[in-house]
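ok here's the first one, seq then struct tokens
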Amino acid sequence: MSLHEHDAPAPLAARDGEPVFDEPWQAQAIGLAFSLSERGIFSPAEWSEALGAAHGALLAQGAADTPLTYYEAVANALESLVGSGNSVSREAIEERTEAWRRAYLNTPHGAPVELSAGLDIPE
């Protein structure tokens, strides 16, 4: 292991015994970006550029520079990168988004939302 590898923080590392993330979905979003980059769906440079652009766009729209704004930018950058490539179609993203929306609406208050609650629901 090189010195650089040893000194580099893990993508989901804690600081001073405290979690880096306020919410589990934030860690999952960063983990997803890391995994997709490792698999070659997009490069680290593409990720950095997309994240910077998404964050800048939110700030330009008047959003406060807060951790929540940052993670909204993470979600926007992921959607942009995955949707702009050939890895996932826009239709597939829209279908999955709708499935998560249905899952949320079909989940009792306080219970964890599971995607299965939004799949194959007869209309």
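and now the second one, same deal
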Amino acid sequence: MGMMRTIVLGSVLCLWTATAAQEGVPAKGVVRPVVAGARGNAQDASPGTVVVTEEPAVTTLMADYARREHVLKGFRVQVFLNADRKLAETMRAQFLQKHPDVPAYLSYQAPNFKVRVGDLLTRLEGEKLRAELKAEFPGCYIVPDEIELPRLPE
């Protein structure tokens, strides 16, 4: 009985929204853009100009979100593990020269330094990268790690 009420209520709501839209009455929850001219008045409207008004708190929240570092659980390929820091830094630099499009990270977990590469969302992407690097780094393997989100072009 509850399922039938949900279907009937949903159907009535859809019909009311469609009828209200046809009559020019904005339905609750429908957002219509405000078209404005150079001065921001709807009376001075020119085609193609949209003015978006948002709360100052939303602007502050979006700026704060953009400044924060966001990490995500994913995978990397570990290509180097050794206790010598200079050797690890050299290995990372050599990797970046050969593969400039793949990010490489140097980390330390006592007593070893690790060079891990890639920011991979799935293990399948990790397998593909590992297969590409296997000839150059025969002992490389996939490890779960916190990865960085790819940067969007600005």
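notes on #2: Strands lie at 34-35, 50-51, 71-82, 104-109, 112-120, 141-148. Residues 34-68 form one domain.
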